[in-house]
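Before going further, it is useful to explain how the protein records used in this thesis are read. An example of such a record is reproduced below.

***
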Amino acid sequence: MPVRASGGTKRCKLSHEGNVGVDFAKFQNLVETRSGFRTMENPTASGEYFSDSCGDLYTFFLKVGPGAVIEDISYFTTGCGFGTATCSLVVDLAKDKTIDEAAAITEQQVMDMLGGYPEKKKDYPQRALEALKVSIDDYKQKVAAGTVADFAAMPRPQREPETVPVAAATSEPVVSEEKVLIQLH
C-alpha cells in the first residue's frame, strides 16, 4: 500500500522562524500521539490521495452507521509530521459527523485547529481533505451500487445526554473549611 520513492526519504523540516500562529505544542502532541493513525479492518469505505509534488500518500478509512454518521475514522500516511498532524485533525473534525457534514469540512477549519501552518505547508489541509473526500465518494459509489447499506436512509441514533451524578439531597448545606455547597430545591 505505501509508495516509497527510490533514492531515499524526503523529510519535512520544522522551523519556528516565520511561523507566527502555529500552535507548536499542539503540533508536537499530534505528531507524538498520532490519534487515528491506524488501518481499519472492514471499513465501509476508504480513499487515498497521492501528492506527486512530494510523494506523500494519505489514506482514510471510514465506518459509517445509521444516519450516515461516521462512527469511526482512521488514516495512514507516509507524510512528515505536518501530514500526520493534519490527518489527526481531520479525524477529530470528521468523527461523529454525517457524510455530508464531513464533506463540508474546509481547509480553513483544519488550519484554525492548529492555529495556522507554515507557508510551505499550507497545502497539507487540502491534501488530507482530498483523501477524506475520495473516501466519502467511495462510500457514495458503494451505496449507489448496492454493495453497502444506504445508512443515510436509516434514522440517526439519538445521543444520550451525559449525566453528572448528583449528591444525595440534604436539607442542610455541606460546609467544609474552604467550600460551601448550597443545594437548590
